[in-house]
Amino acid sequence: MASALMRARRSAALPSAAVMALRRAFAAASVGCDIVSAAPGVALQKARSWDEGVSSKFSTTPLKDIFLGKQVVVFGLPGAFTGVCSAQHVPSYKNNIDKFKAKGIDSVICVAVNDPYVLNGWAENLQAKEAIDFYGDFDGSFHKSLELDLDLSAALLGHRSQRWSAYVVDGKIKVLNVEKVPSEFKVSGGEVILGQF
Q1: Residue range of the domain that includes 3
Q2: Consecutive 10-residue runs of the chain (197 residues): their mean pLDDT?
Q3: Where is the Thioredoxin domain (predicted)?
Q4: Is 33 marked active-site?
Q5: Do residues 116 and 45 make contact, with C-beta atoms less than 8 angstroms apart?
Q6: What is the maximum span of the chain, computed from C-alpha positions, in angstroms?
Q7: Residues 167 and 100 placed together within one structural domain of the fold
Q8: Number of domains in the chain
Q9: Are residues 4 and 45 in the same domain?
Q10: Is residue 37 domain-shared with residue 53, that is, in the same domain?
């Protein structure tokens, strides 16, 4: 009797494990994934000054407004004012913005787990605000939903984003590049993704 109960419990547990695996596969960023559906209810915060934040009543931008009906190149990085992000990642997109526009890209977007005010200062410092749209993922919910989050507490950064890039058409991920470690800059740069679509 006990073994029959154990078998029944195990078989009852299988469907929920399978459902969880399917749910996780659906939510994880991958080619073919709908980025808006994978992060339901998530909104990002456009980079801005504090005064702009106050005057906009701290508005956020739903993902559907960023991605649906558009061709977008989006890249995520561990954080503003950090080494590779400032010296290589953002410049690789800024310096190629005309090539992206010539290929019909509606917008190039940088997303980081930072508040929109820090991102605004960083974008201005890099003189990249005119070329790239910067968005804050202040609580990391966007990156967590896509399973592109990373614990960088060892570098005193806390929970952040992996270094990645994607080409998104009408909300669907067509190309996705994720670095093996955030200190690398091999597959997520502007020059790489330009050659992928």
Answers
A1: 1-28
A2: 36 35 48 88 94 92 96 93 87 97 97 94 95 94 88 68 93 93 89 94
A3: 33-197
A4: no
A5: yes
A6: 72
A7: yes
A8: 2
A9: no
A10: yes
